[in-house]
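Incident review: delayed structure delivery

Summary: a single-chain prediction request sat in the queue longer than the usual turnaround. Root cause was a stuck worker, restarted by the on-call engineer. No data loss occurred. The affected request and its eventual output are reproduced below so the record is complete for anyone auditing the incident later.

Affected input:
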Amino acid sequence: MHEGTRAQELFTQDAGRAVEAMRLWANVHQRVLQELVELSAATAKEHARLYAEVQQAGVRFLEGNAQALARTTDRLQTSTEHAGKGIQESLSETVAKLKDVYAG
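Output delivered after worker restart:
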């Protein structure tokens, strides 16, 4: 009976060790999973932050382009007005000279 009791004790110890090992692995899995969840959340936050920064940079870029376009449009309008006045003066002078040519 002594051998049977000893075998039972060894079996109980081994079973206890196996249960403890399973508990340790379960804890490790839980901690690793928690770390992965936190990493995923941090990655999602960083992705959202980066997207917002890129979007703001894009908006600033577009605003800058819109301002540059507005300045260019203003300059072109001024140049067009100046050219229009020059053309009008040239035509007026030519018409006046032609009138003198045909009047005389």
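Verification: The first helix runs from residue 2 to 103.
Action items: add queue-age alerting; document worker restart procedure.
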